[in-house]
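A reminder from the course coordinator: this example appears on the midterm review sheet, so study it carefully.

Given structure:
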């Protein structure tokens, strides 16, 4: 009987850690495959940097061109968060630090 009481108290406790779906934080989802999202991070403006070495002067030029500092420089093996932020620029580098591509996220 004591076990049932403890279980009942835990399940009825409004602070037990359960959140209703409408109370959960909402994250923006990435665009669906095949659709083109607006260029909210500036990736289309800086396509001329593809193939350049990501040295400090180039990194500064990229930040100046896009007009913000929300940039992730991602080398192979870099651990990154999976949260999607449409106004953040991801610059994908190869092993040598050369810019391969860019995308919002």
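Designed residues:
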């Amino acid at each position: 009987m004591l076990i049932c009481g403890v279980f009942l108290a835990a399940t009825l406790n409004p602070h037990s850690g359960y959140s209703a779906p409408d109370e959960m934080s909402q994250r923006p989802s990435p665009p669906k495959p095949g659709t083109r999202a607006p260029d909210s991070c500036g990736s289309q403006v800086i396509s001329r940097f593809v193939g350049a070495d990501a040295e400090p002067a180039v990194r500064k030029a990229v930040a100046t061109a896009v007009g913000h500092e929300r940039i992730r420089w991602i080398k192979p093996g870099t651990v990154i968060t999976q949260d999607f932020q449409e106004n953040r620029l991801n610059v994908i580098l190869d092993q040598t630090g050369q810019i391969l591509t860019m995308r919002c996220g």
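The chain has two helices and three strands. The first strand starts at residue 71 and ends at 74.
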